Fold:
Amino acid sequence: MTDFINIDPATLSVKDAYKLLIGSILPRPIAFVSTISADGATNVAPFSFFNGVCTAPPTLLFTTTRRGTDGEKKDTLLNIEATGEFVVNVVTEDIVNQVNQSSAEYGRQVSEFEATGLTPAQSLKVNPPRVLESPINMECKLNQIVEIGDGNVGSGSIVIGTIVQFHYRDDVYEDGKVITNKLKPVARLAGSNYCPVREAFEVPRPTVTSV
Structure:
């Protein structure tokens, strides 16, 4: 018989709970979120608690937690609260190092575009710039923000956005589909580990025949 280690999350520190969470939910896609402040300062940062919500309207979400150093809101969230707009850029093998560099806690007026050497590109329907080096960009209007926790370190905000414009680099898009092996997306694992998507296997969806 296989033994299990049973852990009550109420007995864990914020740090220990975080380690278990990121080690259990994986691989996680990365939302590379670009925003702009009310006074025009640009920001771009990665978030690996990220996924789609629905397609009518096309909607996605990502979660940003309070900063571990001081419990304050991150610049990305402050900018979205102020402007109601953001862009989610897909992370690939080609830009993963710059994405990682952007996760450093820069000052509020420091643009991660300049700090990482990434190129801001004009969006069509929102003010925050896209990341030119990312082959997929999704311009979003804020739907709602759901606060989770007591507002201290470890608490989070679920940011839900309606996609108002898609952008696809022509080499990763064909006949209405994304070509994964050309996109070369990267996902997050635990700690400082990432993983590429280089192999895939197909499992056909089952059909049920009524009796």
